[in-house]
From TrEMBL:
InterPro entries, sorted: DPS_DNA-bd (IPR002177), DPS_DNA-bd_CS (IPR023188), Ferritin-like (IPR012347), Ferritin-like_SF (IPR009078), Ferritin_DPS_dom (IPR008331)
Gene Ontology terms, MF aspect: ferric iron binding; oxidoreductase activity, acting on metal ions
A Pfam match: Ferritin
SUPFAM superfamilies from the UniProt entry: Ferritin-like
Ferritin/DPS domain sequence ranges: 17-154
This protein's name: DNA starvation/stationary phase protection protein
PANTHER family membership: DNA PROTECTION DURING STARVATION PROTEIN, GENERAL STRESS PROTEIN 20U
Organism this protein belongs to: Dyella tabacisoli
Family, per entry: Belongs to the Dps family.
């Protein structure tokens, strides 16, 4: 059955490309945050271990929301490490840095995701896709807030 939600196929595909990049950023940030949760050490251990757990759980749920929005637009969502690696701008961390470097990397990751979200909102708004714009506006606010909270730890 053809999709008839008021957004032409070409525009749905364009929005889905932006959403796929946001999904890749979200999933990459999820993996990094979860790894840091497992491997945090030092005097900030308890507070950061708990904070990172809250953050990776939020990112996990967000990834599902973004992927389901892509499917709502009748486009297949990326779902492999290689696809995410090509789409994301978030740098992978294969080592175990100290807690300050972890926090800095997470701030940077959330800021990158915020930039991706802004571009996605523009594309969705231009196409009249209020549903995607609304979803991504919530994601933007969450990435900005999380970056602020993490940045505050470093002052």
């Amino acid at each position: 059955m053809a999709v008839s939600i008021g957004i032409p196929k070409k525009e749905r595909e364009q929005i889905a490309k932006h959403l796929s990049k946001l999904l890749a950023d979200t999933y990459s940030l999820y993996l990094k945050t979860h790894s840091f949760h497992w491997n945090i050490t030092g005097p900030q251990f308890n507070s950061l271990h708990t904070m990172f757990e809250t953050q990776y759980n939020e990112l996990w749920l967000a990834a599902d929301e973004v992927a389901e929005r892509i499917r709502t637009l009748d486009v297949f969502a990326p779902g492999s490490y290689s696809q995410f690696g090509k789409l994301t701008s978030i740098k992978e961390e294969s080592g175990v840095p100290d807690w300050k470097v972890m926090v800095n990397q997470l701030v940077e990751g959330h800021e990158i995701a915020a930039h991706t979200a802004r571009q996605t909102i523009k594309a969705a708004s231009t196409a009249g896709d209020e549903g995607s714009a609304d979803l991504v506006t919530g994601r933007l606010k969450e990435h900005e807030k999380t970056a602020w909270m993490l940045r505050s730890l470093l002052k």
